[in-house]
Write a structure and sequence with these properties.
single chain; Maf protein; alpha/beta
C-alpha cells in the first residue's frame, strides 16, 4: 500500500481509495482497479437524520479530504454501518462492545448501509450514493461469540463481524448486494463512475 506521504507534485493522475480497509481494496482489485490507499484524518459522524445520510456524509468527507491535495485524480470514499431496529452499529470500541453487538444481532435480521462518494479532483465534480442489504443471522451461543472475538476479527468492522471471512458462518441469508455488506458496493461504484463520464473497464 502507498501512504499519504507521497509528494502531490509528483503524483500522476490516479485512483485513490480514501480508506484503510483491506476488504475495500480487495473488492476494487477484483474488478481490475489498483488504487493508491490513503487514510483521511476526519471525525466520522455516527448520528444523522437517517442511516443513508450517515454513510453518504462520511464517504464524501473522506473523498473531499484528498481532493485539494492530489490534482487530476479520482478519489473514492466509502462508509458502512449496520442498523437493527433503528440502532446504528459502527465499529466496536472494545471486546465487550463487540460481544454486545453480536448478541443483539444473533438470530435476527439487520440492514447494512454502505455509502460511496467519487470526487474528480481535476474538475471537483462529485457523485454520491448508497446501497443497503438485509442480512439474517443464525442464533449464536455465548461460546461462539467469545471464540470469534478471540480471533480479533470483529474489532475493526461495522457490526463486529466480517462476512468475507470467519463471520460468514453467522450468515443464514442476505437480500441484496454482497459487496455492500463487505463495505463497498461495486454496482454503485460503476454507476458513480458512469455519471462522471468514467469507465471501470
Amino acid at each position: 500500500m502507498n501512504s499519504e506521504k507521497v509528494d502531490p507534485s509528483n503524483l500522476a493522475p490516479c485512483l485513490i481509495l480514501a480508506s484503510a480497509s483491506p476488504r475495500r481494496l480487495e473488492l476494487l482489485q477484483s474488478v481490475g482497479l489498483d488504487p493508491q490507499v490513503m487514510v483521511a484524518d476526519i471525525q466520522e459522524i455516527e448520528s444523522a437524520a437517517s442511516p443513508e445520510n450517515i454513510v453518504v456524509a462520511n464517504a464524501l468527507t473522506k473523498a473531499r479530504y484528498f481532493a485539494g491535495k492530489y490534482p487530476a485524480s479520482l478519489i473514492i470514499g466509502a462508509d458502512t454501518i449496520v442498523v437493527k431496529d433503528g440502532k446504528v452499529y459502527g465499529k466496536p470500541e472494545d471486546e465487550s462492545a463487540a460481544a454486545a453487538m453480536l448478541r443483539s444481532l444473533s438470530g435476527a435480521e439487520h440492514i447494512v448501509y454502505s455509502g460511496l462518494a467519487v470526487v474528480d479532483s481535476a474538475t471537483y465534480l462529485e457523485e454520491v450514493g448508497w446501497r443497503s442489504t438485509r442480512v439474517q443471522f443464525r442464533e449464536l451461543t455465548d461460546e461462539t461469540i467469545n471464540a470469534y472475538i478471540a480471533t480479533g476479527e470483529p474489532l475493526d468492522k461495522a457490526g463486529a463481524y466480517g462476512i468475507q471471512s470467519k463471520g460468514a458462518i453467522f450468515i443464514e441469508s442476505i437480500t441484496g448486494d454482497y459487496s455492500t455488506v463487505v463495505g463497498l458496493s461495486l454496482p454503485l461504484l460503476a454507476d458513480l463512475f458512469t455519471r462522471l463520464g468514467k469507465n471501470i473497464f
